[in-house]
Design a protein that fits this description.
With about 240 residues, the chain is of the alpha/beta class. α4 crosses α5 (about 110-125). The protein has 2 domains: about 1-80 and about 160-240, 3-Layer(aba) Sandwich (Rossmann fold), CATH 3.40.50.300; about 90-155, no CATH class. The longest helix is centred in the last third of the chain and has 18 residues, at about 170-190. It is globular, with a radius of gyration of 18 Å. It has helices at about 40-50, 75-80, 90, 100-110, 110-125, 130-135, 140-155, 170-190, 200-205, 215; strands at about 1-10, 15-25, 30-35, 55-60, 65, 80-85, 160-165, 190-195, 210. It contains 10 helices and 9 strands. Bound molecules: adenosine-5'-triphosphate. Adenosine-5'-triphosphate binds near residues 35, 39, 41 and 42. It comes from Streptomyces mobaraensis. Keywords: ATP-binding, Nucleotide-binding, Transport.
């Protein structure tokens, strides 16, 4: 179970972009998170994946509180997540051939010996042919690079996947292919999923439950009631 409780987070002191957000992903569950642009979905997703330290609130992984963020998170917690972002070019080192990009997490965790076999397996699963694996990011399409980023996210067999608008810039067939890769992986491993997006049709089809931002987080300070009444408490009802 992945639990975020009363998370407040942002980028500047005293100016949170996420206020009092609570969200739960049960083991093996797929939860879609929908909301208007700029409301804070990506920020919350980054907090969930231990990539962004919240100003307040807690993140709990299978009953164990998160014990650090980014490189300060203990390895066992950090590697429990596979994360795929919207823009593969911003999350891929342009110097690395796709083979090395996919192998990055294995190398970083001292598992070089497994890398060749695991990359072959992941390339086959994500539909990357051997010739593509020898190319660098600027020599492949966005869709091909996103396939490699998804393969990288799966390399350490994470217990949770966080897909932040993973398919937003892709065509329908690549979107379907990548969703199918995630679903095959989840069937095989029982991993949970937090999928952030703008497309209710896709999230409703893909996920067990879709939650709307208003049900997850309090309103931002500048839209809170002017009379000083507290914002309504978040509720956790999702709907399909
Ligand atoms: N690195 C950053 N530094 C400062 N402000 C940021 C940073 N990243 C995001 N923000 C701001 O935080 C707010 C929430 O951004 P976030 O990306 O979490 O929203 P979002 O709901 O995911 O938006 P979208 O759906 O457009 O991707 C926005 O006002 C954004 O400008």
């Amino acid at each position: 179970m992945l639990e975020l409780r009363h998370v407040t987070a942002g980028y500047e002191p005293r100016r949170p972009v996420v206020r009092d957000a609570s969200l739960t992903v049960a083991a093996g569950e797929a939860v879609g998170l929908l909301g208007p642009s700029g409301c804070g979905k990506s920020t919350l997703a980054r907090v969930a994946a231990l990539l962004h330290r919240p100003d307040a609130g807690t993140v709990t992984l299978d009953g164990e509180p998160a014990r650090g963020w980014r490189h300060r998170a203990p390895r066992a917690q950090r590697t429990a997540f596979g994360v795929v972002f919207q823009q593969p070019r911003m999350s891929a080192d342009p110097r690395l051939r796709l083979h090395d990009l996919i192998a990055e997490p294995l190398r970083a965790t001292g598992r070089r010996a497994e890398a060749a076999d695991r990359v072959r397996e992941l390339a086959a699963a994500t539909g990357l042919t051997p010739d593509l694996l020898t190319r660098r990011p600027h020599e492949v399409s966005d869709g091909q690079l996103q396939r490699a980023c998804l393969a990288r996210a799966l390399a350490l067999r994470p217990r949770w996947l966080v897909c932040d608008e993973m398919t937003a810039m892709l065509d329908a067939s690549t979107t379907a292919a990548l969703v199918a890769v995630v679903e095959d992986y989840r069937r095989e491993t029982g991993a949970g999923l937090l999928a952030v997006g703008h497309d209710p049709a896709l999230l409703n089809r893909w996920c067990d439950r879709t939650v709307h931002w208003e049900a997850v987080a309090a309103a931002p300070a500048d839209t809170a009631p002017a009379d000083g009444r507290p914002c309504p408490p978040p509720d956790h009802r999702g709907h399909r």
